[in-house]
Design goal:
The protein contains 17 helices and eleven strands. With about 375 residues, the chain is of the alpha/beta class. The protein has two domains: about 100 residues, 3-Layer(aba) Sandwich (Rossmann fold), CATH 3.40.50; about 160 residues, HypD, alpha/beta domain 2 (Rossmann fold, 3-Layer(aba) Sandwich). The strands form two sheets. Strands 4-3-5-6-11-10 form a six-stranded mixed sheet, with helices on both faces. A five-stranded parallel sheet has the order 2-1-7-8-9. The chain is globular and about 65 Å long.
Length: about 375
């Protein structure tokens, strides 16, 4: 059914909904589209849209950011990272640099980049310097990083990888006693790379309605209508509401490069803990370009204890869909985009930053 956003809204309003249906959207990009388009206010009051764990900046372990900072401060290297990583705070005593931005102000050569190719270009332009690429992100970011390794990089470029897979966090929630949602909208960009089939476990194992969506209001509302119909009709299937880009099997070349250059490992998510098989690590075949092996002195396991969210920050609960952003104890008061305390207020994919940008500036009245 080819409808515009107004048409899908009209279809949704005709559905005989019960008192409450909770729909989790995994992707930070989805949350941004939902908030900026005002979809929560346009949908029937029975529908609760819950932001999920789709912000790689928010879940990047504190110890990885700290390691990148210490490496840049103590070694004659150029450290490059995606721009939104530069303002994520770490837990350090007052007076010490608490972000990559502040480490740069303290003298470290830290440069923001927008794509993995920029890391390659900087390394080629500076052959006498070691260049470390601090690469945090989900499958859509890690795939081009893997392709970079497979296609060949200069010896003076190494990779400090903090890659994560999206689906294991959703699996962890569904395996818990309180998953907190009745239906799922899966991320279209991840499905473009990995294939929509990666989300079939939601249907097959947990009998939860699911649909893959793109980033327009039309696609998101089509996915919302789909999961609501599945829920009402008690008929579960994985619906692809982003057929323009999501194809069966995903992107074969990207998946091949991920398989060749990366290993899937158990990984820490900031404030959440270890999630099995949820991280990427540089494979042994490409170990020469692994910054953790090239600069081993800065990989400190002691940081894991110090690396939780800052005191009072509920970002981990927001990431897990257990609190709305404005239910965080620091939201809009101690924590703002100008002075972020937690990582959810830093990135454009962080739910707290998105809600603030969408005009929600105060904490919820009832905590």
């Amino acid at each position: 059914m080819a409808l515009d956003a107004k048409g899908w809204l009209a279809q949704i309003h005709t559905l005989p909904l019960p008192q409450r249906v909770r729909i989790m959207n995994v992707c930070g990009g989805h949350e941004r589209s939902i908030t900026m388009a005002g979809l929560r206010g346009a949908l029937p009051k029975e529908i609760e849209l819950i932001p999920g764990p789709g912000c790689p900046v928010c879940v990047c372990p504190e110890e990885d950011i700290y390691q990148a900072m210490q490496l840049a401060l103590n070694e004659p290297v150029i450290l490059v990272a995606f721009g939104d990583m530069l303002r994520v705070p770490v837990n350090v005593p007052k007076g010490e640099p608490r972000s990559l931005d502040q480490a740069h102000a303290a003298g470290a050569d830290i440069r923001p980049i927008a794509s993995p190719l920029e890391a390659m270009q900087i390394a080629m332009a500076e052959p006498g310097k070691q260049v470390v690429f601090f690469a945090a992100g989900f499958e859509t970011t890690t795939a081009p990083v893997a392709s970079l390794l497979v296609q060949g990089v200069p010896d003076n470029l190494s990779l400090l990888l903090s890659g994560r897979l999206t689906w294991p966090a959703v699996s962890m929630l569904l395996e818990s006693d309180t998953p907190g949602f009745d239906a799922l909208i899966a991320p279209g960009h991840v499905a473009t790379v990995m294939g929509a089939e990666e989300w079939e476990f939601v249907i097959d194992k947990h009998r939860i309605p699911a649909a893959v969506a793109g980033f327009t209001p039309e696609s998101l509302l089509a996915a919302t209508y789909s999961v609501l119909r599945q829920w009402l009709d008690e008929r579960r299937f994985l619906d692809n509401c982003y057929p323009e880009l999501v194809r069966p099997g995903g992107n074969p070349s990207a998946k091949q490069h991920l398989d060749e250059a990366m290993d899937v490992v158990d990984a820490n998510w900031r404030g959440i803990g270890i999630i099995p098989s949820s991280g990427y690590a540089v494979s042994s075949e490409y170990a020469h370009w692994d910054a953790r092996l090239r600069f081993p002195d800065y990989d400190s396991p002691d940081r894991k204890r110090a690396g939780e969210m800052p005191p009072g920050c509920d970002c981990a609960q927001v990431v897990l869909g257990r609190k709305y952003p404005n239910q965080c104890r620091l939201f809009g008061e101690a924590c703002t985009p100008r002075n972020p305390i937690g990582p959810c207020m830093v990135s454009d994919e962080g739910a707290c930053r998105i809600w603030w940008s969408g005009g929600i500036r105060e904490r919820a009245a009832h905590q």
